[in-house]
Amino acid sequence: MFGLSKKQPIAEHEATGEIERVYYEIKQSLRVTGVNLNFRTWAAYGEFLPLVWDVMRPNVETWAFESAADRLRSDAVRSVAELGPPAVRSHVSLGESQSFQIRAALDLYHYVNPKLLVFSSAVLLLLQGEEVGRATTQEADRLPRGVPPTMYSMEMESEQPDDEHLMELYRDIKNSLSLRSINSDYRTLALWPDYLSAAWQALKPLVQTPMHQDAANQLRETALTLARGLPYPVSLDLQAVKDAGAEIEEVVEITESFVQLLPGLILNMARLQLDWREVAELEESPFPAPSPQFEKEGVS
């Protein structure tokens, strides 16, 4: 079950001290407008998040990490492409502004979720005592930090909305996906409740199908392989995890749940994207980073 922790995730506006510092660096290094649920959950465990972030950050800021996420995103799109568009748009009356914002929100999560899977997979391997990364200079070039200027702000509806229909929709999503906390993706789409309702009705019948589960399993295995192949070898001192105030068994269980959930979430967001963009476009990053060659040559 995703989000097994009984601890309350730390929201961005609640962050102080080292957590606030790490939240800022996450947004700059991952090139994203907000802090996703996995980081907010880890932040509730003493100094565990600063510890694991500082270990992983050198790899996160490389072209190899970006390329790994690009690979997962492309694989996910190919997996759902044969299903065709879910036709959610035809069931919801949306104005031009609403359509623009929903498309931008989907681009945000289509971009960041594969990164979260690579990161969470690496953290799981580290917690299991495995060294992540290999000594190589291949794709170790650093990416430029900073949020892409056209990326949608990671705004979200409350996890406890006043709207009873929306609350019931949250409950259905959590029960169907075995979630303890509702994901950032669904909370953002909840800003347009009619769209989220129609989207979930399109997604729900598919999430338990063998095809969906097989595709999710393949993404999960690919992510673990890609995490092992990151350019900088790093390891995690499990005693340091305990000293940081985290129970190892609990953070392992939580991290396993992230790795279990994220592939399906990536597939779901890719499927919704088929209503808005062509497959070839979706296989590419919505916010491509400058390539190492361009950076070296000074080409913008």
TrEMBL record:
Keywords: Hydrolase. GO terms for molecular function: 2-haloacid dehalogenase (configuration-inverting) activity. It comes from the Bacteria. It is an enzyme of class 3 (hydrolase). The keyword Hydrolase applies. InterPro entries: 2-haloacid_dehalogenase_DehI, AhpD-like. Gene3D superfamilies: AhpD-like. Its EC number is 3.8.1.10. Transmembrane segments: none annotated. It holds the Pfam family DehI. This is 2-haloacid dehalogenase, configuration-inverting.
